[in-house]
């Protein structure tokens, strides 16, 4: 088939840089290269020509995690190619480099090698270069690969679609199977394939193609071999393009033009859109530890959805904003549990500093926290928030040093206590779930009132020496007959100061250490159960529930002295409760701080409001009434036994 | 089916690769193209098959890339699939690339047992036992290891994650 004046065209090489190459580059940049932007030798590979398949329609240079290794594992399915990488230090440097000048410089190196080489050594003819900039803050890699190529213009005098020389094909197959340094380009001399140019012999050559392009354009690696043989003085040649799939073809070529000293060197790789420009590998999600941790935590949780709990709604858990009142033993363990469930927003409130006894029981603190901050110990809430981020950077955690106003502890500094109250109110507005994890009974009163008034999910955990209580507070929105109680619903007195005039062991929570872990874990799991229930915090107390994530008990009480735990207990709302009864909530909604202030100063005021005082009075009256009923009639008594008078009057008194 | 060894895997991986690249089909609105495919040898007599596929939507220009490796896991004594999905050139979580994901597959983001870098892995904890329950196919001329690898890929390979990727090779024709 004759083709007048057609010029040989090539299929450009494309690079395929596996992400692991850049991961390795980022490690080397940090640990080894640092500011060194000089060249580093790397190794890429192309698929062995005998293994090309129909998908290899372009020559592909591969780079991966092993490209920086000085030695490659022997692999007969690959042809390894040497190259160099120039990793510059700034994006400005990347931009400012004159790309044509750079390519000419690299091409000059290959040209010098060509002048001295004596064989068709593919390592000389296939060299590649990479200009790159690694943005290690964002894990973005800007890179541009170049395959410096020399131009020699060859017109096609004749093109044959298939070679009919079967013995030659067989010889080529044998040659490429023994692939050494040569094996991509041969001259045919006296019926033999030779690895070096013989200028006194006819110009018959074989190129082992590096792709199986459907339009029969040989891989652009051929360019440098053609330039080289032009340089060697060949003007007319026969060239066989060998392909493993049988689509071998031959050219008869006439040299039209070439420059003895190359003027133009081409070879910058084009983007997939065909533009001459660098490529970008954005590997933030593959290298950035923060992003990796976020993905891994989420994937781990999602394992539950595969089989064990396919209906579980993880998104609702993830989206909760959780306020932990107390950053002590309970608070720190609850925070860890929440982290495990993928909760992303945790806020701590506490007014204490870390003391030497804390770190062994409080999982977010360490020894050094006891004496840092000028020997005073760190603030608990702030340190807990920071520790949580150190464990999982994806968490949004904050700490507030705040004294929660306590009932029975009269106002001493109203502006400060009012400010604390207002901050606490705002924190309630900003959060969905409140955990009451403080170390005294009276500290939980205001948070209980606020929780009911603002209809938040409130979970309360409290410890005895060897017992624990975990409960959720009822809501005003529950039907009256199903409304659950709060921490104070079983009391007939309002909470009061339990700390003044107490010994240390009475003030501090002296507990078996494991009780806090158990209670914290139960509190977190109770929250998850509430969130998975269709009625959320309005769910009524049912011991066995067909809800997708099991039942949502009202309260769980456990006893370590006999390792017994009860979760079938529940207490209905008490209509005179000092924490959650309607009169208290109504008064709070009407008078706000003024109401709270009076309660703090005098808990009997609260007993008046909620009706407990009336209950106490009625109870007193009922007692007196009962006593009166029990009294014996004096006349009857005297009639029965006069002698017993002295003895009985003593007993009755 | 009988278990296979690392050596059997190595001997058969080229043949399996030929079957694989010829039979991967995406049966929905995407066109599947194989962008790269090779088998690489690494130290300790291990090898792995690397393939990069691209799925482009016929109606718009959205391109999803999935790189995956097939290798033999010495601890689990079974082949294992590791993948890295990319959307708009960025590594993306499985559920972020917009393809349907099988509800039963167990995946984890973990360190590739050969490449020592982060990949998503189809967990191999049940593979050995599950493949043992498959019947041996007697009377065929097909290599039993190739048969095993094809069965494995159907159950625990790409189609296990992406139900729209089909792999139904005609081994026995």
UniProtKB/TrEMBL annotation, chain A:
Domain Ubiquitin-like modifier-activating enzyme Atg7 N-terminal positions: 8-286
Pfam families: ATG7_N (PF16420), ThiF (PF00899)
Location(s), subcellular: Cytoplasm; Preautophagosomal structure
THIF-type NAD/FAD binding fold domain boundaries: 306-546
Keywords: Autophagy, Cytoplasm, Protein transport, Transport, Ubl conjugation pathway
Domain of life: Eukaryota
TM regions (residue ranges): none
GO terms under cellular component: cytosol; extrinsic component of phagophore assembly site membrane
GO molecular function, one term: Atg12 activating enzyme activity
An individual GO BP term: autophagy of mitochondrion
InterPro entries with a match to the protein in the record: Atg7 (IPR006285), Atg7_N (IPR032197), Atg7_N_1 (IPR042522), Atg7_N_2 (IPR042523), ThiF/MoeB/HesA (IPR045886), ThiF_NAD_FAD-bd (IPR000594), Ubiquitin-activating_enz (IPR035985)
Active site (UniProt): 508
Predominant location category: cytoplasm
Function of the protein: E1-like activating enzyme involved in the 2 ubiquitin-like systems required for cytoplasm to vacuole transport (Cvt) and autophagy. Activates ATG12 for its conjugation with ATG5 and ATG8 for its conjugation with phosphatidylethanolamine. Both systems are needed for the ATG8 association to Cvt vesicles and autophagosomes membranes. Autophagy is essential for maintenance of amino acid levels and protein synthesis under nitrogen starvation.
Family, similarity comment: Belongs to the ATG7 family.
Subunit field text: Homodimer.
PANTHER family, alphabetized: UBIQUITIN-ACTIVATING ENZYME E1, UBIQUITIN-LIKE MODIFIER-ACTIVATING ENZYME ATG7
Listed name of the protein: Ubiquitin-like modifier-activating enzyme ATG7
Organism of derivation: Spathaspora passalidarum (strain NRRL Y-27907 / 11-Y1)
UniProtKB/TrEMBL annotation, chain B:
InterPro entries, per database record: Atg3/Atg10
Top-rank taxon, per record: Eukaryota
One GO molecular-function entry: ubiquitin-like protein transferase activity
A Pfam family hit: Autophagy_act_C
A biological-process GO annotation: protein transport
Assigned keywords, A-Z: Autophagy, Protein transport, Transport, Ubl conjugation pathway
Name the record gives this protein: Uncharacterized protein
Source organism of the structure: Spathaspora passalidarum (strain NRRL Y-27907 / 11-Y1)
């Amino acid at each position: 088939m004759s083709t007048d004046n057609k010029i040989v065209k090539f299929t450009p090489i494309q690079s395929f840089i596996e992400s692991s190459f850049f991961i390795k580059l980022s490690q080397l940049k940090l640990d080894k290269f640092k500011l060194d932007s000089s060249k580093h030798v790397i190794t890429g590979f192309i698929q062995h020509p005998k293994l090309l398949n129909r998908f290899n329609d372009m020559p592909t240079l591969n780079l991966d995690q092993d490209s920086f290794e000085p030695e490659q594992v022997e692999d007969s399915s690959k042809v390894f190619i040497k190259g160099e990488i120039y990793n510059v230090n700034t994006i400005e440097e990347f931009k400012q480099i004159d790309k044509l000048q750079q390519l000419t410089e690299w091409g000059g190196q290959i040209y010098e090698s060509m002048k001295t080489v004596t064989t068709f050594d593919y390592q000389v003819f296939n060299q590649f270069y990479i200009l790159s900039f690694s943005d290690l803050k964002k894990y973005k890699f800007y890179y541009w690969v170049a395959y410096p190529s020399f131009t020699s213009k060859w017109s096609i005098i004749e093109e044959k679609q298939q070679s009919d020389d079967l013995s030659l094909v067989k010889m080529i197959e044998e040659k490429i199977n023994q692939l050494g340094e040569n094996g991509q380009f041969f001259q045919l001399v006296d019926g033999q394939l030779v690895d070096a140019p013989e200028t006194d012999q006819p110009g018959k050559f074989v190129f082992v193609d590096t792709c199986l392009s459907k339009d029969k354009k040989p891989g652009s690696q051929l360019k440098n071999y053609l330039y080289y043989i032009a340089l060697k003085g060949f003007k007319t040649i026969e060239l066989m393009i060998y392909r493993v799939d049988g689509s071998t073809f031959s050219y008869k070529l006439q040299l039209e033009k070439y420059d003895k000293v190359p003027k133009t060197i081409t070879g910058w790789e084009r983007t997939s859109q065909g533009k001459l420009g660098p490529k970008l590998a954005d590997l933030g999600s593959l290298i950035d530890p923060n992003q990796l941790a976020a993905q891994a935590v989420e994937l781990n949780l999602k394992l539950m959805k595969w089989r064990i709990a396919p209906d579980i709604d993880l998104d609702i858990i993830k989206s909760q904003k959780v306020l932990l009142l107390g950053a002590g033993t309970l608070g720190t363990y609850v925070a860890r549990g929440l982290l495990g469930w993928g909760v992303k927003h945790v806020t701590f409130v506490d007014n204490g500093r870390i003391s030497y006894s804390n770190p062994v029981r409080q999982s977010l603190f360490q020894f050094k926290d006891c004496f840092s901050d000028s020997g005073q110990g760190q603030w608990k809430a702030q340190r807990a928030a920071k520790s949580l981020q150190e464990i999982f950077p994806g968490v949004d955690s904050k700490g507030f040093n705040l004294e929660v106003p306590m009932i029975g502890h009269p106002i001493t500094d109203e502006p400060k206590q009012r400010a604390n109250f207002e901050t606490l109110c705002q924190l309630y507005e900003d959060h969905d779930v409140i955990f009451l994890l403080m170390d005294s009974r009276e500290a939980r009163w205001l948070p209980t009132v606020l929780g009911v008034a603002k209809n938040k999910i409130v979970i309360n955990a409290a410890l005895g020496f060897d017992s624990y209580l975990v409960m959720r507070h009822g809501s005003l929105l529950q039907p009256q007959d199903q409304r659950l109680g709060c921490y104070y619903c079983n009391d007939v007195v309002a909470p009061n100061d339990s700390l003044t005039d107490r010994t240390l062991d009475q003030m501090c929570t002296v507990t078996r250490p494991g009780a806090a872990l158990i209670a914290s874990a139960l509190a977190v799991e109770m929250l998850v159960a509430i969130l998975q229930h269709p009625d959320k915090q309005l769910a009524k107390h049912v011991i066995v529930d067909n809800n997708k994530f099991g039942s949502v008990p009202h309260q769980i009480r456990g006893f370590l002295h006999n390792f017994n735990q009860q979760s079938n207990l529940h207490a209905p709302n008490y209509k005179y409760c000092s924490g959650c009864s309607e009169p208290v909530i109504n008064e709070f909604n009407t008078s706000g701080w003024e109401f709270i202030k009076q309660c703090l100063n005098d808990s009997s005021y609260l007993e008046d409001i909620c009706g407990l005082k009336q209950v106490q009075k009625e109870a007193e009256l009922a007692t007196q009434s009962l006593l009166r009923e029990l009294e014996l009639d004096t006349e009857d008594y005297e009639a029965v036994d006069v002698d017993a008078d002295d003895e009985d009057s003593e007993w009755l008194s | 089916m009988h278990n296979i060894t690392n050596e059997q895997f190595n001997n058969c991986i080229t043949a399996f690769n030929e079957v694989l690249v010829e039979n991967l089909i995406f049966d929905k609105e995407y066109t599947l193209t194989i962008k790269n495919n090779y088998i690489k040898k690494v130290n300790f007599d291990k090898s792995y098959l690397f393939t990069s596929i691209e799925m482009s939507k016929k109606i718009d220009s959205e391109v999803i890339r999935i790189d995956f490796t097939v290798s033999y896991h010495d601890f689990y004594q079974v082949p294992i699939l590791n993948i890295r999905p990319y959307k708009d050139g960025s590594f993306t979580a499985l559920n972020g690339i917009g393809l349907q994901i099988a509800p039963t597959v167990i995946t984890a983001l973990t360190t590739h047992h050969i490449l020592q870098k982060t990949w998503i892995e189809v967990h191999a904890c049940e593979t050995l036992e599950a493949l043992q329950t498959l019947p041996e196919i007697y009377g065929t001329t097909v290599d039993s290891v190739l048969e095993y690898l094809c069965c494995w890929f159907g159950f625990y390979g790409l189609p296990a994650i992406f139900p729209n990727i089909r792999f139904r090779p005609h081994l026995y024709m």
